[in-house]
Specification:
The protein is α+β, with helices and mostly antiparallel strands. It has two helices and two strands, in the order H-E-E-H. The protein has helices at 15-40, 88-94; strands at residues 65-70, 78-83. Strand 1 (65-70) and strand 2 (78-83) form a beta hairpin. The model has no long low-confidence stretch (mean pLDDT 82).
Length: 106
Amino acid sequence: MAQEVGPGGRAGGSRWEAAREAVVLAATLASFLASVWLLRRPAPAPIRIIPPPTPAPTLTPTPKWIQVYLTGAVQAPGVYTVPQGLRIWTLLEQAGGPCRRRTWSG
């Protein structure tokens, strides 16, 4: 007795085996096409790292000069041009200090 050859070319093949082979072939083809589609997509734009802007150089403030009239019990009373924010003791030193007859307490 001769064996029957199924649609897959195998002896004893059934409709279920042929259907299973068709499903496996379709799944393989679908996964291959999906892979090709994913690999052909354009690459995303590269990430650019932009450093923060450098701050503009700041100008060093020039001291403002003021005129002070110093009078009283100092060695050299008069008008002095000094930078703004100068301590009074420094100004008194520029004026030669206190007179001999006067003592400073501070």
